Amino acid sequence: MTLPRQPDQALPAIAAGLGKRYRRGWALRETSLVIPKNRIVALVGPNGAGKSTLMGLITGLLSPTTGGITVFGDQPTGRGLHPAVSYLAQQKPLYQQLTVAETLKLGARTNPTWDQHYAEYLVAQGAVPMEAKVGTLSGGQRTRVALALALGKRPGLLLLDEPLADLDPLARETVLRTLVTEARTQGITVLLSSHVLAELEGVCDHLVLLHKGRVLLAGDVSRLGAGGTPLGVLAMNRMREAVREDAA
Ligand SMILES: Nc1ncnc2c1ncn2[C@@H]1O[C@H](COP(=O)(O)OP(=O)(O)OP(=O)(O)O)[C@@H](O)[C@H]1O
User: Fold this and answer.
1) Keyword set for this entry (predicted)?
2) Is 47 in the pocket of ligand 1 (CB under 6 A)?
């Protein structure tokens, strides 16, 4: 079994001080963030707030216009993902014609830190048949395979860009429960973007709230909501405040 990569414990998972401008304007401005390790982070904000852009900068698929970003102390190279990072985008990167077993084999071929036993265990836990073609699986089963592919790499940081959007509420809950268990037991930092604040409640212990390309709130939920305010209420209150400030 391949041992999980152990990022330097003294370094944060993500440290950023940057801006990102597309042709149409700034998607992120003066974004300053430090995300410690071993957190399950809710990345939330309205449409167009800059969540996917931030994910793209962390993966190195995008590069900052100003400033910089580090992931476990390293600057993204732009030549593929950091070895300790797994990224699961909304459109799950799976080949419909491959079987689940062939999909995992591909994971093994492309990831030096691949843990086949662990990936098979995650698939089996979801009762997904190994010989089934990916194209014949249900949405929930496909998400389970995509998650096994992402976690089989044994990442230190897992980025999930609205991965549960096409699942029914029960499947969402099951996948989230698996995710939290694995993140907690394996010491994985997870950055999870979602519009459904309620489903992040009790799952995420750290909040990053973006609005119009700015960080409105960032930190551990226990610290931000000192009186035990739930994550969803914290985020909604701060967003309403920002809308009022914009209107004033
Ligand atoms: N490739 C691109 N070219 C030009 N503008 C872009 C590009 N990608 C994003 N943008 C713009 O940057 C801003 C932030 O977009 P981004 O996709 O990061 O937001 P988001 O928070 O992920 O939104 P959503 O919740 O709708 O997915 C938006 O104004 C968007 O129109």
Assistant:
1) ATP-binding, Nucleotide-binding
2) yes
Question: Going by DSSP bridges, is the β-strand pair 157-161/85-88 parallel, antiparallel, or unpaired?
Answer: parallel
Q: Are the CB atoms for 197 and 44 separated by under 8 Å?
A: yes
CATH number at 14-247: 3.40.50.300
Q: How far is the CA of 73 from the centre of ligand 1 (A)?
A: 26
* Per-residue tokens: 5: 């990569």
Q: How far is CA 226 from CA 60, 141, 201, 231, in A?
A: 35, 38, 16, 11
**25 CB near ligand 1 (under 6 Å):** no
pLDDT tens digit sequence for 61-77: 999 999 999 999 999 88
**Ligand 1, atom 24: closest residue by C-alpha:** 47
Pocket flag, ligand 1, residue 73 (CB < 6 Å): no
In whole angstroms, what is the distance from residue 238 CA to residue 72 CA? 29
Pocket test for ligand 1, best of 23, 24, 44, 57 (most atoms within 8 A of CB): 24
- Whole-complex ipTM: 0.98
Q: Report the chain's terminal Cα–Cα distance, integer Å.
A: 59
- The domain ranges of the chain are 14-247
